[in-house]
Amino acid sequence: MELINGNTFWPSTFTSHFSYPALEDEISCDCLIIGGGMGGALSAKLLTERGLRTVVIDKREIGHGSSMANTGLLQYSNDKTLTSCIHTFGEQRGVRFYELCRTAMKQLEETASSLDLDPWYIPRNSLYCASLEEDVALLEEEYHTLKTHGFDVELWNRDKISASFPFSKPMALYTQGDAEVNPYRLVHGLLQSASKEGAQVYERTEMIHCEYGGEGVLCYTPNGTIRAKQVIFSTGYETQEIKNDRGAYLKSTYAIATKPLKDLSSWYNRSLIWETARPYLYMRTTPDGRIIAGGLDEEIPREDQRAIRAEHRAEDLLKKVADYFPLPDLEIDYAWEAVFGSTHDGLPLIGPHPEYPNCYFIEGYGGNGTVYSMIAASILTDVITGNHNEDLELFSLTRTTKPSPV
C-alpha cells in the first residue's frame, strides 16, 4: 500500500543520526513489535521500561509510514463527540473513552518531556467551531455533556470568537489540555530512548509471514527470523492487508504546510482549530511560524489520479485557510495526500484477535491516532506484563456497538 503521495513537511525538521540496521540473524525476544511508527514506538518505550526484551521491525525506514504524514494535533476531544459516544456505547463506556483520551494527553506530555530529542511538544487549547447556524445546538449539547462529566470547556458566542480571531463563527467550544507535536521527531525520540534501554530496532526489515504456536510466534523476515513470546502488530492502515476489519474503512486525507509567515499575532494563543462540517478542516501553527492545515477526507482516488487530486486539494485547503486568516503571505510550501483510516463506531481497535494467538493489534484509526496509540501502548503493556486492564474490552477487535447499561 502506498501510504503517502506528495512532499511531507516533518522530515525537513530532523535528520536522524541514529542508524538502525536491517535484521540479518536469528534472534528471540519477549515481545516483537511489527511497525516502527507512533504506536510501535510508544509501545517499545513502555515495554522496555518494564524490563521486557523488545524488538521493533519496520519494512521502511523508521518513521516513514503514516507518522510522516501525521499533522500533529493532539486532543482529548474526538471526531465523535462525547454526546454521540454516550448514545452509541452508553454513559459509562462513552465517558470512560473520553477520560482515557484525557489521561493519554497527560501521558504524552510526560513522555515527550523525558526524551533526549525535543519532539516540539507544546500545550495548546482548541477551538471547535460551528460551521453553520444549525450546528449551534450540537455544540450547546456537547458543552453541557462535557461539563456534566468534568471536562474543562468554555462555550464561546460569535462576539467572543470575532474578538479573539480575524473570523466569525456562530459558536465554538474552547477546550484546554490539548497540544501540538512534531510526530516525526516524537517517533525518533521514542525509539532512540527505547534502544538506549535495550530495545533492538531494525528498519528495512519486512515481516514476510508468521507462524503462530501455543508458546509464541515465529516471524520470518527476508534475512532473519525472530522468535517472540508475544507480538504487537502496529502496522497502521496496512493492517487491513494482514486482516480485514469489517468495522474499519480507509479514505484519502490531505494536508499542507505554508511557508513561514511574518505575523501570526491574530491567531489567539496559537490554538488548534477545527470545525463541525464533515469532511472538516483543521489547522495549527508550527514553532517556525507556518500554518499546517488538513482534512477534506474523501474516497481514495485511482492510483493514477492521486497526484493531481492532491494538487487540487492543496489549493482548496489554502483557500479555506485564507477564509479564516486572510494573511498577505499565505503560500504552500509542502503538500501531501495520505491514506487515513476510521472505524464505523468511532473507537480505535486495540487488543487480541482470535485468529492470531499470542498477538495484539494497535489500530489507532480516527483523527486522534497519536492519542489512541498512547492508550493502546498503556493497555497492552499492562496485558503483556501480566496485569489485568479492564479497558481492553472497550476497544475489542470483535466488539459490537450495543450500548452498555447506564
Q: Give a count of the beta strands, DSSP E runs of length 2 or more.
A: 18
Number of domains: 2
Return Rg in Å: 21 Å
Termini Cα gap: 42 Å
Quaternary organisation of the protein chains: single chain
**Mind summarizing the main beta sheet?**
10 strands, mixed
Helix content: 25-40%
For the record, the CATH class of the largest domain is: Alpha Beta
Share of residues in strands: 25-35%
CATH names the topology of the largest domain as FAD/NAD(P)-binding domain
Domain FAD dependent oxidoreductase: 30-382
Protein name: NAD(P)/FAD-dependent oxidoreductase
InterPro entries: FAD-dep_OxRdtase, FAD/NAD-bd_sf
Organism: Paenibacillus illinoisensis
Explained architecture:
Its EC number is 1.-.-.-. It holds the Pfam family DAO. InterPro entries: FAD-dep_OxRdtase (IPR006076), FAD/NAD-bd_sf (IPR036188). Keywords: Oxidoreductase. The protein has 406 residues and is α+β, with helices and mostly antiparallel strands. It has two domains: 4-70 and 184-244 and 348-395, FAD/NAD(P)-binding domain, CATH 3.50.50; 123-178 and 247-343, D-Amino Acid Oxidase, subunit A, domain 2 (D-Amino Acid Oxidase, Chain A, domain 2). Helices cover 29% and strands 29% of the residues. It contains nine helices and 18 strands. The protein has helices at 38-49, 82-89, 91-113, 136-148, 158-164, 183-196, 239-242, 306-324, 369-384, and strands at 4-7, 26-34, 54-57, 73-74, 122-129, 153-157, 171-180, 200-202, 209-213, 216-221, 224-233, 248-258, 272-275, 281-285, 291-298, 332-343, 349-353, 356-363. The strands form two sheets. Strands 1, 4, 5, 6, 7, 12, 13, 14, 15 and 16 form a ten-stranded mixed sheet that branches. Strands 2, 3, 8, 9, 10, 11, 17 and 18 form an eight-stranded mixed sheet that branches. A hairpin with a 2-residue loop joins strand 9 and strand 10. Helix 1 packs parallel to helix 6, helix 1 (38-49) runs parallel beside helix 9 (369-384) and helix 2 packs across helix 3 (91-113). The mean pLDDT is 94.
